[in-house]
TrEMBL record:
<feature type="binding site">
    <location>
        <begin position="65"/>
        <end position="66"/>
    </location>
    <ligand>
        <name>3-methyl-2-oxobutanoate</name>
    </ligand>
</feature>
<keyword id="KW-0489">Methyltransferase</keyword>
<keyword id="KW-0808">Transferase</keyword>
<keyword id="KW-0963">Cytoplasm</keyword>
<feature type="binding site">
    <location>
        <position position="104"/>
    </location>
    <ligand>
        <name>3-methyl-2-oxobutanoate</name>
    </ligand>
</feature>
<dbReference type="Pfam" id="PF02548">
    <property type="entry name" value="Pantoate_transf"/>
</dbReference>
<feature type="binding site">
    <location>
        <position position="65"/>
    </location>
    <ligand>
        <name>Mg(2+)</name>
    </ligand>
</feature>
<keyword id="KW-0479">Metal-binding</keyword>
<protein>
    <recommendedName>
        <fullName>3-methyl-2-oxobutanoate hydroxymethyltransferase</fullName>
        <ecNumber>2.1.2.11</ecNumber>
    </recommendedName>
</protein>
<feature type="binding site">
    <location>
        <position position="136"/>
    </location>
    <ligand>
        <name>Mg(2+)</name>
    </ligand>
</feature>
<dbReference type="GO" id="GO:0005737">
    <property type="term" value="C:cytoplasm"/>
</dbReference>
<keyword id="KW-0566">Pantothenate biosynthesis</keyword>
<dbReference type="InterPro" id="IPR003700">
    <property type="entry name" value="Pantoate_hydroxy_MeTrfase"/>
</dbReference>
<comment type="pathway">
    <text>Cofactor biosynthesis; (R)-pantothenate biosynthesis; (R)-pantoate from 3-methyl-2-oxobutanoate: step 1/2.</text>
</comment>
<dbReference type="GO" id="GO:0015940">
    <property type="term" value="P:pantothenate biosynthetic process"/>
</dbReference>
<dbReference type="GO" id="GO:0003864">
    <property type="term" value="F:3-methyl-2-oxobutanoate hydroxymethyltransferase activity"/>
</dbReference>
<dbReference type="InterPro" id="IPR015813">
    <property type="entry name" value="Pyrv/PenolPyrv_kinase-like_dom"/>
</dbReference>
Length: 290
């Protein structure tokens, strides 16, 4: 009954989903329509302020499970939890209005069965308001993609280098350098597409394999370390900004924010030690209001 719960008795403008709220974001059909057309611009986002910067410039914001490594200092993405994805997903939704927001299902939260995948995906969409989830799509996961799609949940696939399989692969290894591998990635991509995925990330593959995958599937491909043959590109934002301590070979650095931060902090430290910060402009005065 409306009016029973505290959260509904005093509606907050920002959290009430109006017709406009959903319509002003990039929609799933609009995303799908970009196949072979204008390139899709995608980046990861984990926080509200970063989402605010990126939202006007991007088609898709991905709350990637890379946040475990980039923000939480984990060695791989295997330790990321559903709760972490929800907390960061909520922050990104608060900081964005226009981009389609998709959230990675973390390791262990979807692989067992279509039912497990549905429970996790529906919970994540319900608690964040995001539009889509992303799954790392080994061939066996295609059944779950179809199960979710058939029940109203848009799914983005992720083929090629699958970071959640790092323990099996013995590292983050590029794909498509042998014929057997090429066939496996192509099979994963075809199964993901046939299951109804709205798009798929293609990670860490050779340019000819990226070309072949992009031609073989009906949904847009979003490349990361997969050449310009894909229908769009994604990078981890902290990598392209030069904020993360290491970066894969496929990253281009568009800024050196580590350098900028170190310079800024060195300046602050020097001023504090010299007693020159705070100065007059940064002090409160008796009787004055500002
Ligand atoms: N900061 C960050 N950026 C990412 O792109 C990223 C994450 N974290 N975490 C999750 C996954 C892991 N990813 C990675 C991590 C390392 C390599 C890497 O070192 N690759 C080797 C390729 C080795 C080979 O040739 O097979 C490289 O030299 O780039 C690639 C992708 C991509 N994702
Ligand atoms: C790099 C993208 C595709 C990703 O899966 C992540 O950030 O977790
Ligand atoms: Mg991921």
């Amino acid at each position: 009954m409306i009016g029973q719960g505290n959260s509904l008795t005093r509606p907050q403008r920002s959290s009430m989903v109006s017709k406009q709220t959903i319509l002003k974001r990039v929609t799933v059909p609009a995303l799908r329509a970009r196949k072979g057309g204008e390139k899709l611009v995608c980046l990861t986002a984990y926080t509200a302020p970063m989402a605010q910067f990126l939202d006007p410039l991007c088609d898709v914001l991905l709350v990637g499970d890379s946040l475990g490594m980039v923000v939480h200092g984990l060695p791989t993405t295997v330790g990321v939890t559903i709760e972490m994805m929800i907390l960061h997903g909520q922050a990104v939704m608060r900081g964005s209005t226009k981009a389609l927001v998709a959230i990675d299902l973390p390791f262990g939260s979807y692989e067992r069965s279509p039912e497990q995948a549905f429970d996790t995906a529906s919970r994540i969409l319900m608690e964040t308001g995001a539009q889509a989830v992303k799954v790392e799509a080994a061939e066996g996961v295609a059944e779950s993609i179809a199960f979710l799609t058939g029940r109203g949940i848009p799914v983005i696939g992720h083929v090629g280098l699958r970071p959640q399989a790092v323990n099996l692969d013995g590292g983050f290894k590029a794909r498509g350098r042998s014929e057997a591998e090429r066939e496996r990635v192509l099979a994963e991509a075809r199964a993901t597409d046939a299951a109804g995925a709205i798009a798929m990330v293609v990670e860490g593959v050779t340019p000819d394999l990226a070309t072949e995958v992009t031609a073989a599937v009906g949904c847009p491909t979003i490349g990361i370390g997969a050449s310009s043959a894909c229908d769009g590109q994604i990078l981890v934002t902290e990598d392209m900004l030069g904020l993360f301590e290491w970066a894969p070979k496929f990253v281009r650095h568009y800024a050196d924010l580590r350098g900028a931060i170190c310079d800024a902090v060195a300046g602050y430290a020097a001023d504090v030690r010299a007693g020159s910060f705070p100065g007059g402009a940064e002090e409160y005065r008796l009787g004055a209001r500002s």
